[in-house]
Amino acid sequence: MRRSRPTSVLLTAFTAALAALLAGATVVLPAQAAEPTVELQPHELTRGADIAVPHIEDGDFVDGTRRVELPGTVARIIGPSGDAWLVGTSNVDRVRNRRVVRVRTDGTVVDVLRNIDTSTVIMSADGSTLAWQRFVEQGRKVITYAASAADGTVLGSKGPGRHVSLLDVDATRVVLASGTRVFQWKPASGNSRTIVKKMSGLASIEHDLLSVYTKDPYRGGCTKLVRLSAPRMKVWKSCRDRVAAISPDGEEMLTFHILTDGLGPGEIHLREVDGTSLASYTTNWFSGWEWESPATVLLAVNGKRKFATVRCTLDACENATDPVPVTAP
Q1: Which UniProt keywords apply (predicted)?
Q2: Stretch 186-209: mean pLDDT, rounded?
Q3: Are 118 and 99 in contact (CB under 8 A)?
Q4: Among 20, 71, 104, 211, whose CB has the most other CB atoms within 10 angstroms?
Q5: 7 phi, psi to nearest 5 deg
Q6: What DSSP letter does each residue of 115-179 carry, written as one string?
Q7: Which residues of 104-141 are buried (b: 16+ CB within 10 A; e: fewer)?
């Protein structure tokens, strides 16, 4: 369902929002503003509620008031699985003590997989299946694996292959990309099938979405968001932006400039999946983004002076963590 968007802007509302920004208050977007652009600087925002979804703080798993120490010193949330959460963790060198663990509601931590590159691990939307990759032959080729998220039982492997990217997984298939080809692999049978002969961006099996490029974006290629099940069915096209993430309900997406590289974008756009613009956010650079809920985004904001995770809805933006000095990468 689309969110309604007002079509006019009252000068008084705009003036009030600007005054609030300059005063260091929460950024409140004008009630009648359409497609606002908001400059995010954590030192100018008020502190809102803590992050409401499980996340990592100082290497620990944090969920509300619950804090669980993890085996390693570096960690990333993989996603929910049953009544637990899966987390990838390792030592700070990201080479030793690599494992995927299950964090249970009682605070116990159980190994699911060990000695794998946890940065490559993704999980199906239903929490049943994991997929990850291992580089071989001095990094020239890659092997893709699928496994049960419950206990790490390997369901199958594919490869080695060259330049293979892992896009998504569900209980029966893995969506992969290699060069100008997107294909699916079924671990149970070992069979593969080409979905479309295009360069890929991202895929969502759950929401039946796939982003592809018409050709190399450095040579004038454009982004197309299509249906994964019917790649000829266009949902949105842009020659300026590419898709960064899809919302949990599949109704919205985050996009940024198609040629963004390096640190991260300085501008992120919130859109409906048909491309309708809802809001734009700017700062020095964004180092991360995710959804706290279908209507709320969390942005890792590196401002001129401070860094913080910033929560934004269509109505307002606020700090969800305490601002700290920006650290040069």
Answers
A1: Signal
A2: 97
A3: yes
A4: 211
A5: -115, -5
A6: SS-GGG-EE-TTS-EEEEEEEETTTTEEEEEEEETTT--EEEEEEEESSEEEEEE-SS-EEEEET
A7: eeeeebeebbeebebebbbbbbebbbbbbbbeeeeeee
- 3-state helix vs strand vs coil in the chain, percent to 5: 5, 50, 45
User: Count of CB atoms within 10 A of residue 90's CB?
Assistant: 22
In 3D space, the residue among 283, 287, 319 whose CA is nearest the CA of residue 300 turns out to be: 287
43 vs 304: CA distance, rounded Å: 9
Residue of 308, 300, 216, 313 lying closest to 266 (CA atoms): 300
Predicted local confidence at residue 1, as pLDDT? 37
Tokens 């080409």 appear where? 194
What's the sign of the alpha-carbon dihedral 198, 204, 208, 211? negative
Distance of CA 255 to the CA centre of its chain: 11
Question: Which pLDDT tens digit goes with each residue over 33-44?
Answer: 457 899 999 999
Query: What pLDDT, on the 0 to 100 scale, is given for residue 34?
Result: 55
Gap between the Cα atoms of 183 and 193, Å rounded? 5
Kindly write down the DSSP assignment for every residue of 18-52, as one continuous string: HHHHHTT--EE--TT-SS-EEE--GGGSPB-PPP-
Higher pLDDT, 27 or 55: 55
Is 200:177 a contact under the CB 8 Å cutoff? yes
Give the up-direction half-sphere exposure of residue 204: CA atoms within 13 A in the CB hemisphere: 21
pLDDT digits 0-9 by tens, 251-264: 999 999 999 988 89
Contact call for residues 281 and 38 (beta carbons, < 8 A): yes
Residue 151 identity: D
**Partners of 311 in the beta sheet?**
298, 318
